[in-house]
Write a structure and sequence with these properties.
585 residues, alpha+beta, Phenylalanine Hydroxylase, 3 domains, six-stranded antiparallel beta sheet, five-stranded antiparallel beta sheet, 19% strand, elongated, Phenylalanine-4-hydroxylase, oxidoreductase activity, acting on paired donors, with incorporation or reduction of molecular oxygen, reduced pteridine as one donor, and incorporation of one atom of oxygen
Length: 585
């Protein structure tokens, strides 16, 4: 990603290359007058309604983050204000992988899908768009406690280990979001995509860590309520950006449950309104539950189960041994004894690191075909190698130039000539390098070479296992190509309907005050009888200027639309009510 394509700042400068690949220019000029009208309608409705039911941080945050009710936010303008909160925002390519999404949060960066929903999906869309991200996520980060939770969630969430089925579900949801917002998609295709998601959700098998963490994210960051069960307030971005669900969720038809770690095991369906929501007493409690969940993750537990999770995931991951040595790669197999791993093997490019920094000479070129090593204690010796002093090592002949045969508990044997050892900052040995080395398990040869050096990891146990590499610079993680704008399909020039939206917008903003709103309405009524949003905008202006005859004509026209399309009834009624509220104000 060329940084010249977006405006960087000190926070964005810290982003690693593999995250920058998802950033794309906002292209503000691509927003049509209809897009602007959609934003304005949703924001006016939200601010009017949410001021009563949202957490007070929402309305405070709108002001602090500089998000306008009348105009789609410009990312550059948002960043100038967000920097005072210690955050930044970037436009990204719609749905991005969950781990990447969370890693952005760990760097105090909000990812904002710059596309905006179509008028047909004004009440709700499963696709991430600027209404959801900009008007939903951004305002709440003005609350310091919540911002700390969001950042911490990113740090922990991006380390969660996924399964192959997680990726399949992600791709299915991403596909649905694209076709649902793409103009002209057949209803049959959308229904087929929704059924495919339902099938995947019903056949996920044992949930992965990423599945659990996504559930926690959904029930807090996206669909969270805060306060008491009797009088909850909205803070989740999915609710804040949905004029339909923000009202639905406040009714008795949606069950309210006290938030706890059990939310991690409560799945959700992105295609349907949620039957229950979780209520946290305050933002600090969110962090408490997050830490409780993190204690269940391989990130903190390590061990045999953590290593097995990495093998099952088939994705790039890292284990950290008790010496602090970190091994990154695609873990392929293990050997265990008495419930503990005694040998692990990666395949393909692998790298070794200490404290997230690659060890010199232990990069993917050195370990191009994989890395394997025994772990644990030597048989019959009470003190583990990592705790041996230089005198201990010499006494056991684990010393430079010695030809040794090391028998590990569980049956692994390493025979060879010791070339050198690598120590950590505390002086503990973390790696031993051999030549003329042979590694066996019972009668099986795991490694044998007289020409190639063998590096044996030192560590009594695996203390951590997590998604991704220890040192981000060790691997080429650039694998994403930016897609074209799927929603708005920007064309040269405006359509006739869009040009009328622009005329009314210009009039309201004082850029063109000589147009006849009556004539514009008559054209819309004749040529675009199903369009309801522009008549509402004209109605608002008619009410403001006390043009009662025009207002009555528009209201009658909208009543006819409601008869033909009952599903638009609530949207039209809300629009008319907003116009009245504006006049009274």
């Amino acid at each position: 990603m060329n940084t010249s394509e977006y405006e960087s700042n000190p926070i964005l400068d810290k982003l690693p290359k593999h995250l920058r690949q998802y950033i794309k220019p906002q292209n503000y000029e691509d927003y049509t007058p209809v897009n602007q009208a959609v934003w304005r309608y949703v924001m006016r409705k939200n601010v009017d309604y949410l001021s009563k039911v949202a957490h007070k941080s929402y309305t405070d945050g709108l002001r602090k983050t500089g998000i306008s009710i009348d105009n789609i936010p410009n990312m550059y303008g948002m960043n100038r204000i967000l920097k005072d909160l210690g955050w930044a925002a970037v436009a990204v390519d719609g749905f991005i992988p969950p781990a990447a999404f969370m890693e952005f949060q760990a760097y105090n960066v909000l990812v904002i899908a710059s596309d905006i929903r179509q008028l047909e999906n004004i009440a709700y869309t499963p696709a991430p768009d600027i209404i959801h991200e900009g008007a939903g996520h951004a305002p709440i980060i003005a609350n310091p406690e919540y911002a700390a939770y969001l950042r911490r969630f990113g740090e922990i969430g991006c380390k969660a280990i996924s399964s192959a089925k997680d990726f399949e579900l992600y791709e299915a949801v991403r596909h649905l979001s694209i076709i649902k917002e793409a103009k002209g998609t057949a209803l049959e295709e959308i229904e087929k995509a929704e059924k495919h998601i339902e099938f995947l959700q019903d056949n996920m098998g044992e949930p992965s860590e990423m599945a659990f963490i996504r559930n926690l994210h959904w029930w807090t960051v996206e669909y969270g309520l805060i306060g008491s069960l009797e009088d909850p307030k909205i803070y989740g971005a999915g609710l804040l950006s949905s004029i339909g669900e923000s009202q639905w969720c406040m009714t008795d038809k949606v069950k309210k449950l006290p938030y706890s770690i059990e939310a991690a095991r409560t799945s959700f369906d992105i295609t349907k309104p949620q039957p229950q929501l979780f209520v946290t007493p305050d933002f600090a409690f969110l962090s408490q539950v997050l830490e409780d969940f993190a204690n269940t993750m391989a990130l903190r537990k390590g061990g045999l189960s953590g290593l097995q999770k990495l093998i099952d995931s088939k994705e790039l991951g890292t284990i950290e041994l008790s010496t602090g040595l970190q091994v990154s790669g695609n873990f392929e197999s293990l050997i265990s004894h008495d419930g503990k791993p005694i040998y692990f093997q990666t395949r393909g490019k692998s790298a070794l690191a200490y404290r997230e920094k690659e060890l010199v000479g232990q990069d993917v070129n050195q370990h191009e075909t994989g890395f394997g090593s025994p772990i644990g204690r030597l048989k019959g010796i009470n003190i583990p190698i990592e705790d041996m002093s230089p005198r201990d090592l010499k006494a056991y002949k684990i010393y430079e130039g010695e030809i040794v045969s090391l028998d590990f508990t569980g049956g692994i044997n390493v025979t060879g000539k010791i070339v050198t050892g690598t120590r950590n900052l505390q002086g503990r040995i973390i790696l031993i390098t051999f030549e003329n080395c042979k590694v066996t398990y019972k009668n099986d040869i795991l490694f044998e070479s007289y020409d190639e050096l063998y590096n044996m990891a030192i560590g009594e146990e695996i203390v951590s296992a997590y998604h991704g590499p220890a040192d981000l610079k060790s691997f080429d993680l650039l694998d994403h190509s930016l897609s074209t704008n799927c929603y708005n399909n920007h064309q040269e020039g405006l359509t006739e309907l869009e040009s009328y939206y622009k005329l009314i917008r210009d009039f309201r903003e004082g850029n063109n005050t000589i147009i006849s709103r009556t004539k514009v309405f008559e054209v819309i009524q004749e040529k675009y009888p199903n369009d309801w949003l522009l008549p509402i905008e004209i109605y608002e202006l008619a009410i403001l200027s006390n043009e009662k005859k025009l207002a009555e004509s528009i209201k009658k026209h909208l009543e006819n639309i409601k008869l033909d399309q009952p599903k638009l009834g609530q949207l039209i009624d809300d629009g008319l009510e907003l116009a009245t509220v504006t006049t009274m104000a």
